[in-house]
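ok trying again, last paste got cut off:
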Amino acid sequence: MGYLLFLGLGAWLLYAAWRGVVPAGRAVWGKNEAGQKMRPGQRILFGAGGILILGVGILMFRFRYQESFYATLSDADKADAITRGWIPGDILPSHSHNIHEVHYPSSPSTEWCGFEFPPADSEILRRSLKVIDVLPISVRFVPIPGGRWWPSVLTGNLGVEKIHQAGLELYVVEKPETSVTTEILLFAVDWTKGRAFFYRTRESASAPSSAR
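nice, full thing came through this time. structure:
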């Protein structure tokens, strides 16, 4: 979360420059000028520093994730997204489109994906999913992926009732990853509108399953 520190500090410096008042921080500035009006040179220094630090924070946030968009499943295949495992071609309907995908480059098993599909072309997706009564522990909290296309109801501590009220049904797909870990894909699907989202993570193979 280092980018949050840079974003916060950058915004704080810019706000101080905009107000033109020296912020509190005697230990930082060397003498007690807190609350005094800034000199012209101080205001420029605070503004330039704020812009620089804010820019670093934005870059850190941007490269924290890798985001891709594919107009169709065929485009995802041509880009090797299926081969690399980012897009589960054996689960998504063949006519899936408007596919958004975000993942951590440093963690291949942490991923967010959203896509649309014709409701009449949902058989393969329905066959692959397992209904759940209780959310698996590993997907009860979903981090924010950074894409505006990801529903806010699917971030943070998940509320099953709120998700249902948003028109989404919850499912899981479990795939053995190693001898001790299992990939968990939490799917939220709106069958009527033909849209779906999934969050991929991993859990210990010994963890209890919540699927039925």
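cool. Residues 66-204 form one domain. Residues 40-62 form the longest helix (23 residues).
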